[in-house]
């Protein structure tokens, strides 16, 4: 699995993921909180591993090739 996310993309995605997970699981209640929390976890995980499966069918890549 090749990374398809650049450094800036990964950092922004990870920060937004932490915020959404914290708000979703810590502040919000009910189904809406769970949905926001899960979206945050997905963003955090994709930011940490550097690969976004949604980028593949869209032929999108922010990772710079040297």
Could you give the topology of this structure?
Blueprint: H1 7-27, H2 30-49, H3 55-58
Task: Give a structural overview.
- The chain has 66 residues and is mostly helical.
- It has a domain of 45 residues.
- The chain is 68% helix and 0% strand.
- It is built from 3 helices and no strands.
- Helix 1 runs antiparallel to helix 2.
- The longest helix has 21 residues.
- The chain is elongated and about 45 Å long.
- The chain starts with 6 loop residues before the first helix and ends in an 8-residue tail after the last helix.
Ranges where pLDDT stays below 50 over 5 or more residues in a row are none
Which percent range describes the beta-strand content?
A: under 5%
* Contiguous helical run count: 3
Helix percent reads 55-70%
How would you sum up the major sheet? none
**End-to-end span in angstroms?**
17 Å
What would you call the shape? elongated
The helix-and-strand class reads: mainly alpha
Mean pLDDT: 93
Number of strands: 0
Give the ordered list of helices and strands.
HHH
Radius of gyration based on Cα positions: 13 Å
Short description:
The chain has 66 residues and is mainly α.
What keyword list fits this structure?
66 residues, mainly alpha, 3 helices, elongated
């Amino acid at each position: 699995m090749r990374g398809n996310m650049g450094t800036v993309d990964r950092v922004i995605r990870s920060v937004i993921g932490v915020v959404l997970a914290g708000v979703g699981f810590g502040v919000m209640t009910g189904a809406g909180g769970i949905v926001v929390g899960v979206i945050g976890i997905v963003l955090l995980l994709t930011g940490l591993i550097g690969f976004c499966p949604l980028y593949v069918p869209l032929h999108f890549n922010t990772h710079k090739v040297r």
